[in-house]
Amino acid sequence: MSTLHTSDPGPALTVWGRASSFNLQKVMWLVDELGLAHRHIPAGGRHGGNDTAEFLAMNPHGKVPVIDDGGVVVWESHAILRYLAARHGRPAFWHDDPASRSVAERWMDWAQTSLQPDFLNGVFWGYYRTPEPQRDLAAIAGSVARCAAHFQVLDAQLARQPFLAGDTLTLADIAAGTSLYRYFGLDIPRPPLPHVQAWYARLQARPAYRRHVMIPFEELRGRLEY
Hints:
Elements: E1 13-16, H1 22-33, E2 38-41, H2 53-58, E3 66-69, E4 72-75, H3 77-88, H4 98-128, H5 137-158, H6 171-177, H7 180-183, H8 194-204, H9 207-212
Helix pairs in contact: 1-3, 4-5, 4-6, 5-8
């Protein structure tokens, strides 16, 4: 079992988090796309470990994911994405020109502030992670409707190009595309999304996406405890 300390120095990059964590999946997807040697330490959820003094010294909020890249500790998934792209992903994932870089960053921030709250918190938590008798059906319906609108915005964008920011994969696709496996895997109404579905097929063709995002999430289903 991995621990916070080891006599084997291993790779310079260490990543803490649980494989089923939505935010960890974004980070691990990018780590894999960049081909970075790394050590993954399960933490959070059933693994625990995120409330220890050692962990809180890295992230006072006690949340995953967290990375340590040769002594540089970063927390918050999108901060980690930007850091890794800037340090290890030039030029494919990080443009030196701020205007070019902002194209992907706009979609990153939109995914975190608009799509993720309505999908991950509103739909996935409200519907899938909540036992059926405890679900707030009106709130869920509202979240499902807002998600439909969000994905229709994505569909219009992807009608013009294969990826969100252009012709190649960027941080925009990682921030928004991590939701697709769960969105299309839930028994909820969805509008026709031909361009999003084509994008999803392109992402599924990437080994890093299959390894880190397409992880069964049955363990997260809400169940009543007796």
